[in-house]
Design goal:
5-stranded antiparallel sheet; 6-stranded antiparallel sheet; alpha+beta; 11 strands; single chain; Phosphatase 2c, domain 1; 246 residues
Length: 246
């Protein structure tokens, strides 16, 4: 397995509210852990929310006595949600803050992951597949048949999300399992990438890479060339590759 992650402030923002975390070593009873968060709130609240949530999540997973991946991850997410809401109540400057979250682990050849909000998880092989489900107003409109996928890409309400860490208790979590096969590359990203780079272009960048380091750098460069309207957070996991230092 080879892993690479990075964030970028983009071209328009003054602070970076995206936060990513990766560990190829065990975290508690999970053999590895990958996390992407996209914070929201005032000048400092968004970056506090994403970092605080990820750090709290990781501590909870590290201390968990549970053994099932779904129980470990979902319990840790609920804990992080509760602690973030407590933090918001304790400081007026943090009021209304929140964050999206994608949490993943790979056990043998099975990918387990959870998501809240509109940060995404894709698997790329012969094609690109978004496995996560966006929790956004526009996605709800698509599901209800009000607009189509093409209209959704450019809808003015595209950034309104319907679920977030820090919004309410308990937080509603989507949890998934996916059987990986040789050649699969996992991409976890914030909407600073997915709103700026079409899925097809993401696919060609990753498939045309020398390695995932080059792919991540090119993804961020492309998002910035296309406008860089938001912070960009990327985690790439080449699930069957041997770790090679660069």
């Amino acid at each position: 397995m080879k892993v690479f992650s990075m964030t970028d402030i983009g071209r328009k923002r003054h602070t970076n509210q995206d936060y990513v975390y990766t560990s190829q070593k065990p975290v508690g009873n999970l053999p590895n852990l990958f996390v992407v968060a996209d914070g929201m709130g005032g000048h400092k609240a968004g970056d506090f929310a994403s970092k605080f949530t990820v750090e709290t999540l990781c501590k909870s997973i590290a201390g968990s006595f549970k053994t099932e991946p779904e129980q470990i991850v979902t319990s840790a997410i609920q804990t992080a949600n509760h602690r973030l809401m407590e933090a918001a109540l304790s400081d007026n400057r943090l009021e209304g803050m929140g964050t999206t979250l994608v949490v993943a682990t790979v056990i043998e050849h099975t990918l387990y992951f959870a998501n809240i909000g509109d940060s995404r998880l894709y698997v790329i092989n012969e094609q690109i597949r978004q496995l996560s489900k966006d929790h956004s107003l526009v996605e709800e409109m698509v599901r209800l048949g009000g607009i189509n996928e093409e209209e959704a890409k450019h809808h003015p309400d595209k950034n309104i999300i319907t679920r977030a860490i820090g919004a309410k208790e308990p937080v509603e979590i989507d949890f998934f399992e996916y059987q990986l096969k040789r050649g699969d590359v996992i991409l976890m990203c914030t909407d600073g990438l997915s709103n700026m780079v079409e899925d097809e272009e993401i696919y060609h960048i990753i498939k045309g890479r020398r390695d995932i380091v080059e792919a991540a750098e090119q993804l961020i460069d492309t998002a910035n060339r296309n406008g860089g309207k938001d912070n960009i957070g990327v985690v790439l996991v080449d699930t069957f590759a041997e770790e090679v230092s660069r």
